[in-house]
Amino acid sequence: MPNLPCLLRVLLCAVLALLAAQAPAQSYPVRPVRVLVGFPPGAGVDITTRLFMPELGKAFGQQFVVDNRPGAAGNVAAEIAAKTPPDGYSLLSASAPIVMSQALYSKPNFNLERDFDPIGMMASAPFILVVHPSLPARSLKAFIALAKSKPGQLSFASTGSGSTPHLSMEMLKSQAGVDLVHIPYKGTPQAVIDLLSGQVQAMFANTLSVLPQVKAGRLRALAISSAKRSAAAPELPTVAESGLPGYESGTWFALLAPAGAPRDIVNRLNTELGKIVASTDMKAKLLDQGADPVTMTPEQIRAFLKSELVKWTRVVKTVGIKAD
Fold first, then answer.
1. Class of 127-242 per CATH?
2. Which tens digits make up the pLDDT trace of 163-183?
3. What is the CATH number of domain 26-124+251-319?
């Protein structure tokens, strides 16, 4: 068989190529991984990310370092992440506002579907409509009645123009027919501080950020934005059952990579995230914060993001908001 040496050389080259392709994923990561967060410490996405990254670090034997880059309702961090090399060493911990930016800006600085590859989902969280205790309203119906009696006199905080809390309140305003003044902030912590001091009267905020304040009696909760009541606050009625049928809103927390990240690295990260979400300890931590553990494949996340984009584009057009 005169061609045997040639055949062996071809097979050897194929094996070496396969091993070379597998090597980056098997050794990944060889240095710390930066995880960009588009909101300040104390925001829901920051809280969730800081719960998960130490566990991911244990699984991979390297640090996953949270890098807060707040601004423009999360767009600053998203733009930075979209322009980083797709090598798995810069990731983005994203939440619902990343979808809103695609609907709000005529020329956004990044394209969610083109510039990012989904890795895994960590959790989801509904919003709670909270008010300052000095406000006489003790239910959503009473709040709406009060707002109608004082058009343009009550204010609400949000984590920035075009953020999910902002659009959630705009959706409520549209359905309830009330006039409230919008006061945007750079993030949840700043907004909650002013709400606690009475500088603003109301706010939609995710459960991770305000449920402790509600339990301590510093804020009054009127309703929850999810389709059904939350296990974290079962006594709290939904917005829908409080007089606005069909209302539903909330946020989620997902890990994304710049487009073109090695598929085997993405799959490894997804697998480890899934294990962490499924752990009894993490489930308890999330539920204690008022969040729900969620797992998805990268393909499921991509489909989910498309559906979110359709939903919030419709809301933006209905309420007539534009960021530019």
1. alpha beta
2. 889 999 999 999 999 999 999
3. 3.40.190.150
